[in-house]
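Minutes, project check-in
Item: structure for the 530-residue chain
Input as provided by the requester:
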Amino acid sequence: MSEVVETSPVAGQVQDSAEAGEEKRTDALSFVVKAVIMIPQLIVPMLFVSYGMADDGISWKLALLPLIVVIFLASVIAVSFLQWRRFTYRVGTTDIKVESGLLSRAARSVPFERIQDVSLEQKFVPRLLGLVEVKFETGAGGKDELKLAYLSEEQGEALRELVRERRDGEKTASVFGDSEASESVPAEQAETLFAMPPKRLVTFGMFEFSLAVIAVIGGLAQQFDFLLPFDIWDWQMWVGIFSGPTEQVAALGIMAQVFGAGLAILSLLALGVVTGVTRTVLRDWGFRLERTSKGFRRRRGLLTRTDVVMPVHRVQAIKVGTGLVRRRFGWNGLSFVSLAQDSGSSSHVVAPFAQQQELDPIIAAAGFESPPGDLDWHRSSTADRNVSMLIDGGVLAFVALVVFALAVLDPFDVMAGREGFAMIPLALGAFFCARQYYLWRHARNAIDADQLYRRVGWLAPSLAIANRVKLQSAEISQGPIARWCGYATLRLGLAGGTFAIEGIPVDRARSLRREVLESIARTDFSALNR
């Protein structure tokens, strides 16, 4: 057997540190959970096998189907058990090491100083068994993140606390796995900053209108159309089915037609609202944001329960956003831009549906301030606005000209007499020009002694606030048109996210960059995380 060792080039401590901890396995029920999760993946192959057997017309083959199912299930359970037996982890004094693999072994060591945070996640099946998946966020995202699936809830909480203590250099009584460390961790004194009761969740879901269920039904129909007794994609069949009711409605008069169309629209709206409420309740059930000694703790989820802690000093920036309709009622959402990942995103949602007065205490607890009333806001360059309007409107105006020319000069009589079609791209061009104008009117930027501000958005505006001392770089970029017209984009280095102010005058970009770099130069970054 070969061994592959994957380590991080941080100091020279990784090789020796693994000896400090005891080699452990995940919970014994882990292989059962993984087997249960893998079973749905066998449904599609089994359907294909069943369909192939029935299509051959040999009925005795179908008698083998239960035996095949049993063999598949036994194989899944056996593989899951062997993977569990060969998966071990060890918590040392400076790193955590994981070894896995059936035939070839792979060992991976991650130093504590690389771990940004440790989060706990419970999907539906593990939650029924009292198990959690422990995720070690390294700030790199993707497959680079380390996971332990699954530990008991007590072990997961104890491991999270131990890793945090060793990462922060605090003293620990014993190595994880000893009797003292495996006991339940005492509950922290926590201050609730924000919570969403069921009534708030349902209200939030009504603003999360979604027709995703239609896409899901379409995808299922495309995958399993061979099981249906008819061709679902035969449009002539559907025309024949609906032609009768359509003729009957037409015979009832214009009022019946209007009523039928209104009923169809209401049905579609109801479907979207129900889908939005369902998705919101599943994702944000029991949403609670607390302030603890370790930072901000967020818990949410009905079927999949997540427990994430965000240290205050790791919050790099904040984002406040709203939607087209919800802004009329004063509802906003607040996110933290952090070094750690949150379901693949660099922003942790900490208050998805709240009034501004509910957001202010959270913003203050994170060390930020809402924009003061006398802040000096600046718009983007008018040259950037004019170029954007010219590009959007000019392209569609050219399309309109081509359509008009085809209608006038068409030698094949395909577009002859259809000059009016040229009005469609012209109308779209006018709309996009108006859109660029209003985007420019609502795009603002500002700076004060501590923070940098950026407002964007027309129908659904958003506000981003970055702490000047937490910005890591400042870059001015210009394309050929921007250089010619005298505007630029200021790109600011922000660990865990992006912060860019686009289309501002070059002098303004240079002024902002100079102020940001001065803040960075006089900051002692070694003292920020203490």
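Outcome recorded: Residues 174 and 181 are 6 Å apart (CA to CA).
No further action items on this chain.
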